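FORM 7B: Structural annotation worksheet

SECTION A. Query
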Amino acid sequence: MIKLTAINPFGAMISAQDQTVDAITALDPKLLEKLLFEHKILVFRGFSPSPDEEYLGFCKKFGDLMHWEFGPLLNVRMEQDPKNHIFSKGRVELHWDGAFANQTPRINAFQCVRSSIDGVGGETLFVDTSKIIANAEKEDLENWSEIRLNYSTEKKAHYGGDVEVRFIENHPHSQHKIIRFIEINNEDNLDVNPVRFDVSGINSKFINKEDFFDKITDKLYSPQYMYRHRWQAGDYMLIDNNSVLHGRAKVEGNASRHLKRVHIL
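SECTION B. Predicted structure
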């Protein structure tokens, strides 16, 4: 048996209640996908660890896997001299995966292999952008629909380049609106591979870059829209990568973590 519990302010946790269903691979992928696009995030707790091939097999039930130069599975560990800040203990800015790639994953899948409780911080941050749009004032929506964003970053790990997006886009697999946004003012990513940013208005409409950025960032970090997840060893997670922006709080102290990430198309 499993138990479904709502997470505040969004998302749901699926818990294994007994030994009858302790392997995540035994769960119905069609049901999980339905729940995922209803709740935007699914956290799985109490299930047995999965070796890589078994974990990849579970992910393949949802669709084709995105292959990078290292393959479909990325080991996210904290490193002493990281080439990319996602392997550091610093803050990771809010973003969506695939922004600087040829394809945008439909689902992000994570398995937490190890997570120490030493130190503080390091929570993974998730923002439900569709909820922000649903609660927005009509004037804000009209202004946001006029905004175009340009980002660039040097390729030092497995991603990099230039991208241009509309601030508000249609979810590619449903009808609701989503936000495309990457934070740039990250003090922990100035020396590794910072993201450069510009904003413009459609039809040459003037947009105050600093004012826009500050207001949107405040809204994204509001507890009304942001879920902060502290990982426990054994956790799994599925994320609607189009509806949800994610990042990471800075790690303080000796905390360590090992996540296995897979992108599903």
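SECTION C. Observations
The helical segments are 29-39, 52-60, 129-135, 138-144, 209-220. The CA atoms of residues 108 and 263 lie 5 Å apart.

SECTION D. Sign-off
Analyst initials: ____
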